[in-house]
Amino acid sequence: MSGHHSSSYKLLLSVAGALLALTVLTVVVHYMYIPEPYSIIIAVVIAVFKAALVALFFMNLYWDSRFNTMLFITAFVFLTLLVGITLLDVLSRDVPVPSF
Amino acid sequence: MATAEASSNISKVQVRRYKPEEYAEHNYLNVAKGLWSWLTSVDHKRIGILYLVTTTFFFLVGGVMALLLRIELWTPAQTFVDANTYNQLFTLHGAIMIFLFLVPSVPAVLGNFILPIQVGAKDMALPRLNLFSYYLYAIGSLIAVYSILHGGIDTGWTFYTPYSSQTGGAVTSLVFGVFVVGFSSILTAVNIIATIHKLRAPGITWSKLSLFGWSLYATSIIIILATPVLAITLLLLTMERIFGIGIFDPALGGDPILFQHFFWFYSHPAVYIMIVPGFGIVSEIVSTFTRKVIFGYWAIAISSLAIAFIGFLVWGHHMFVSGQASLASMVFSFLSFLVGIPTGIKIFNWLATMHRGSISLRTPLLYILGFLFLFTIGGFTGIALATLALDVHVHDTYYVVAHFHFVMVGGMVMAFMGGLHYWWPKMFGRMYNQAVAKIGCLLIFLGFNLTFMPQFIMGIQGMPRRYFNYIDQFQGLHQISTIGAFVLGIGFIIAIANFIMAIYKGKKAGANPWGSRALEWQIPSPVPPHNFDHIPVIIHGPYDYHQPMADFQLGLATNGHAPAHGAEISAEKQETEE
Amino acid sequence: MANHSTTTPAHLLHHYVDSDQQFDAAKLGMWIFIVTETLMFGGLFGAYIVYRVLYPELFTLASEELDTIMGSINTVVLIGSSLTVALAIKSAQVNNKRNIIINLAITLALACVFMIIKYFEYTHKFELGIFPGVYYEYGGIDHPQAHIFFSIYYMMTGLHGIHITIGIGLMIWLLVKASKNEFHSGYYTPVEIVGLYWHLVDIIWIFLFPLFYLID
Asked: pTM for this one?
């Protein structure tokens, strides 16, 4: 297994183009003033798409050893554990501490 | 000369066997002289020795602090230091022992030294990064020493907010020191994982990787996932002290329990960072000194990974009385019990390995027997503490103190001492005095029990931890504990002195004094500068005691191309020439 | 190995069999480091989520103080620099040494542009009295815990800015090496490794941008 991958100029430029388009899209959606929970959801979904484009085609995960992809995903799984279980506590506390 | 024809899944490989030399003219110790050659060496063995010297120094510093604490507790009131000094002593004892000794000890000392040899590599994957990580460790520990001398710290090693963001002293600089040491252990972990993945010699498949290697692999995974969260937590604490950012300060609308969540997200897995490499040492020693194939290779290997994973789900059991939601406490309590399963699997596998083995009670195995006894007690009391209702009763008492000392000292330090006694002849080519080593082991075992057994009793009777004064009824138990601490200290001094004597006066040990099948014993002692003249081809696994010793001569690919790294090599046909 | 038939290239360390093994090991090491970086920033994202849950209305109120236009420009700048890093690697792979230098120089320039825009954003807030933590003295946000939002904002963008600064240093290092003609299609490991780092910094900003600038 060798990790060298050479993308074509066309691919690199079109990925960058897609990233710019998604940036414009997320700003435009922002100025449409969609109500609260949906606006942040749309913004984060677009961000996830952009991050995936960078990871797959700029960081070459699409062609690389599957183990590197697994590592990257593992990071997010454990981040979810940290935030998820912390929220389990924060949301179910009888008296939220900051109010005293 | 024997030839074995081995086949890989890609191509047939001709393997020539050669007998290891007992002694090599050049070894890593005599290849270059002078302190400068040591401080700038990227050789994994020399870096391991550098770590050994530094961590031992901090172990002694932390140990002296423990003895001072025990002397102070000889009488119920003030004995010889004031209360504030006492607070600083237990804080520094904890912080030094955990961050400067226990976390780096096995991965950075024995892992650095032994792991590349066990995977048949000439060095760690990223040698310059390895040296860099040592210097980060050195800088971080110097910052810690600076903090001790300039103000001291009285927060306890856990740095709980909001006290830690308001108290005086050198909290900021100690926290920064720990931050730097944390990056050092991250880089060591990066190196270990890269070495295991990319540098295994031909023939060392995942199923022939040593269990020490597996345990370091699991440990490294914990380090890379947990340590960055500690780093960011400590950074937030520092900002809290400098700018009062208020994230952990209830007076500013922050949530102090959030600090505890973040802190224990690292510090609970950190317990496994400390103990899991010890498990690896136990597997190596048990197999070697019972002359048996390790029982349940995959069970032991996978249970390390299982411990690593479950270890991330249980941190809240440190926070049962912190004001955490009762729902979260119940979930954490349940999940904490699960850690007992993979740990129990390991204990039973080691016992099964010893069953009907040809046991030789050499010093390393004695330490491991001590480990099995003490760690099992530590583990069971841990299960007791994970019980929500019981923990509310004994939380922050000496019961907890005794529990984690049984795991950390009774488990980890015993395994580390066993590992040092096991690999010392390989590291320095000299054998230590067996009788003295056994006396040291016995004193450590007895002294340890004398120190910490009474603390279980005191804890269950309600003696709170970290207290400067106590009521008269505990004095007898406290005094037994103090005497035990000194016996323990004498035991360590004897063991360390014996090691140092061995370097100068010990008998030459030879390549394989224990008759082990593991790869590191098939090369000369002390180890040659590049471990192997050529990257070897490995036929059998490290625990194949059912195979004749002659099969463990190093193989060398002879026909043109070397097999791919980590490729499956099997000795199909074996013929003897000459 | 026993079969060293060709001469060893200068960049190959003694304990590797060949350049590919060395390249893969370095890249694996970098990916593991990226995991640690993700979790380090993850802690801050965790704090962000927890405080958003505790004070939901604070985040929408305070976000109005942030300049969406400046944030958008910085996003475009970072995406552009990610592209040029990828192009630098591509240039190394096709042995175009002049283009390696040009692309690295553009990346360096874009990183500096990002920091300059960040500088204007920060100084504007300092003029209003929006300082982190207890030094916060701005009266324009009707919420008792307004300083918490800006503490998190300064922590996250500040740590990100430190990463950009480190990236600037790394780009200069690469430029020095590239100008000595050290990179070619057989050896460009440092460019690849720094590239991975730079893309990660970009990804972090891709999340910081909507979470701070696009929630009002």
From this structure: 0.93
